[in-house]
Design goal:
With 524 residues, this protein is of the alpha/beta class. It has three domains: 152 residues, Rossmann fold (3-Layer(aba) Sandwich), CATH 3.40.50.280; 242 residues, TIM Barrel (Alpha-Beta Barrel), CATH 3.20.20.70; 88 residues, Arc Repressor Mutant, subunit A (Orthogonal Bundle). Helices cover 43% and strands 18% of the residues. The chain contains 21 helices and 20 strands. Strands 2-1-3-4-5-6-7 form a seven-stranded mixed beta sheet, sandwiched between helices. Strands 8-11-12-13-14-15 form a six-stranded parallel beta sheet. The protein has a three-stranded antiparallel beta sheet with strand order 18-20-19. Helix 1 runs parallel beside helix 6 and helix 2 crosses helix 3. The longest helix is centred in the C-terminal third of the chain and has 28 residues. The radius of gyration is 24 Å and the shape is globular. 40% of the residues are buried.
Length: 524
Amino acid sequence: MRVAIVAPPYPLEEMPSPPLGVTYVAAAFLAAGADVQIFDYIVSGYSKEKLARQLDLFKPDVVGSTSVTMNFFDAQTILRDVKNHNPEIITIMGGPHVSFTATDTLKQSPEIDLIVTGEGEDTIAELTPVLNQRNQWHGILGIAYRESEQIIVTGRRDFITNVDRIPSPARHLLPISRYRALGFPVSLITGRGCPYSCIFCVGRKMVGSKVRKRNPKLVLDEIEQIISYGFDRINIADDLFTTDKDRVREICAGIRERSLNFKWSAFSRVDTASQEVFDLMAGAGCDSISFGVETGNPEMLKRIRKGIKLEQVYEAVKMCKQAGMIAHASFMVGLPGETMETLAETDRFARSTKAVYGYHFLAPFPGTTVREKISEYDLEILTDDWSRYDANAAIVKTSSLDPQQMDDFGTRYFEEMEVDWNKIMKRYYEGKVSPEDRMQVEGQWRMKLTYQILQNDIIEQCGRMENSLVKGSKEKALQELCDRVQNCTNSDAGIVDNTIRDFAGRGYLKADFSDDGCVWSWSG
């Protein structure tokens, strides 16, 4: 059985990690005996022609894609292109969006043959041996599929109690060099499950209310493996990492004992903050913690069932800074009952925390309490255009606020950031910038250039060179590549030269020479 797993396009501006869900799914298929490849369209461009070439080369029996709500349409389009290329390929989709819209998705999307709902590893283990035997699908829990004109939903599968038996993410199947060039942290989870009931989150339904913790040794083994791929920054993505002091102590001690040299960050809840825990984390290389605060209004905190108090935010930020780490706080615009007064209250509170803070807009995803019980809240959802569920603009309104007012609030925040950035840029061009600000400006330019190179497959476009140009010289080939990338992207020549030479020096790019010339490509 050959299985291709699709990582559908996701905006690089949203700073995606190497896709964790995709690599867990790939690992589950590998464990079930399948031959697996990942078709990654996050750090490379997507086209029907590229997909066709990949399908013809690998010849998969099955193509599966995950998706969140925001990129569901992209994933759906790719599976439609798969079916148009070869109708015999079985198409599967999983992930949080289709887990809560399975019936409607199958009714509206004939290109999707089967949906895996919820936690998928055990489902994949049972499904893989019978994927080409549709008459056997009815006995497998955790799937939905079409049978004639009927949608069959086989029922909910229990969560995996012993998470230590879940296969480790198959990150080796990702285009590692591209993700290293992108430079974003690698996500890792130390357990599954969330006992909290925030009305805007699908996490509790996807991973269950009971916390299932991984053995610290396995967590440390995974960290060691990630570092072996050349990554130097990790983000621990589960909210409850900081709740178990003994476990944090064991993992942090293991990082030091194994001499694991990397920087890391973590999410945390302010009501689980502990000076001892934060000191342990900082001593093991953690340099920042992110807290979800959502609002500065106490009544709204209760309404959204966040389960925290504002004074806990101050204490958590203070403890984080005392440990020598950066404290990030995230807030949400457009919660049920939002008014201009509550937004102003949140703004005042966010500033007063002294944390690095930011805003995003409520996106009432399928599966969330706020969407399923919308009639109980002062909120109206204005669109089911899933591509707009990116949390970057208002798609709801309350009795007191329309989307434009919410967007205007967000605009004022971003304008403040823009003013500060323009001051830095002015100093940069006047030659009066500090070394730190110079690094920030040129880092931004390099990041935008990297986005262009990855999303537009620039290396593939520019990397083939005749021998008459390079004459067997790597330096000539490297300079030629820099010149071509500069022409393709219309970027600053100095930034291009520094970036491409750095990619080559770090081994992200390789040059293959032959009698015909040279071909530059990503190293893996």
